[in-house]
Amino acid sequence: MADNTVPAVPIDEAERKQILNRLRRLEGQIRGLQQMIESDQECEAVLTQVMAAKSALNGVGLHIIGHAMKRCLIDEEAATREELIDEAIKVFMKYSSCVK
């Protein structure tokens, strides 16, 4: 069976903090959604928050993909760059198929 995993792309500390901050905000949005359900909020208001949370999560995914692609273009030697870009595109295509 072929290994279809993409090698990890190192993330510097500033980038890591930015991603984690986005995820913490998203965590707060999800908790807010739970409270809305518990307090029987209107369906439209709940769905608006669901869409906002989904959009935020998609934004995190796109941010991570963008970071990986940038690293592939900047940091790697020409000999491995094309292979890494192909892998990054594969990940992007896989991710983008679930984002609607």
Key features?
single chain; elongated; 100 residues; Methane Monooxygenase Hydroxylase, Chain G, domain 1; mainly alpha
Short description:
It is built from three helices and no strands. It has 100 residues and is an all-alpha fold.
CATH class: Mainly Alpha
The amount of beta strand, in percent, is: under 5%
Order of helices and strands: HHH
Residue share in helices?
over 70%
Q: How many extended strands? A: 0
List low-confidence stretches: none
Largest beta-sheet details = none
Architecture in CATH?
Up-down Bundle
| Structural class by helix and strand composition | mainly alpha
CATH superfamily: Metal-sensitive repressor, helix protomer
Q: How many DSSP H or I helices? A: 3
Quote the CATH topology: Methane Monooxygenase Hydroxylase, Chain G, domain 1
Separation, N- and C-terminal Cα atoms? 30 Å
Mean pLDDT: 83
Provide the domain count. 1
Tell me the overall shape.
Answer: elongated
Radius of gyration, taken over Cα atoms and rounded to an integer in Å: 17 Å
